[in-house]
Input
Amino acid sequence: MKIVIAADYRELSQMAAEIVAEQVRTNKNSVLGLATGSTPECMYAILSQMHRQDNLDFSGVITFNLDEYVGLAPDHPQSYHYYMKNHFFNQVNVKSCNINIPCAEKNNPEKVCLEYDQNINNSGGIDLQVLGIGTNGHIGFNEPDRFLSVDTHIVDLTEETIEANCRFFESKNEVPRRAVTMGVGSIMKAKKIMLLASGFHKAKAVKEMLSGKVTTELPASLLQLHHDPLVILDHEAASLLQAKE
Ligand code: F6R
Output
């Protein structure tokens, strides 16, 4: 796994944005896998600036988001649909017909999941997948468990994730209990993967992710089996990497 350690969150975001920009410049019809959460916020801001100032062109780009809550309408301020519009899609020229975010609200959820993976395949597969990592090592909403699902599926969120995400809601009771997420197989099929982690609270998960061992109890550890993964950390997230047991 290639690991790059940035001085701070800003530098991490700049590096990540440059990699996405390079992908889009090299292939204007790139298929991007996108994440939400606090970590990529600054990366999206820099990409939006690159679009405005340097004409970085997203008009041919197709996007697939990793996940979405079940139980929040797309216009709910905490939905990932809303996040993506606010932080990225409204700031750049991605065509709305090229934006894909799983939505299990209207139709049969199994059908939604199946069609999501089919749409990824039909688009030629994801060229670059952007990931964050949960404090419990989740990727997308693939939570630690004895078994992980390969394909896009509906998942019950763990207490730890509900706790971590309640900072975005008025109260813990408002955090949805279920989500739809790309599976670990859908993620691992991406041609390139770029995982971003920032802050001391991610250091333990990062250390375990890079331990040389793979376990479904730390879903991000599976990325060690990918052929082209890049991990960009800030100093805080990397702080346990040199520590002796
Ligand atoms: C979001 C996602 C999650 C986050 C993870 C880290 O689409 O898939 O796996 O990447 O929970 O979230 P932050 O960046 O808020 O710490």
Notes: The chain is about 30% helix and 20% strand. The mean pLDDT is 95. The radius of gyration is 17 Å. Residues 35-39, 66-67, 132-134, 138-140 surround fructose -6-phosphate (CB under 6 Å).
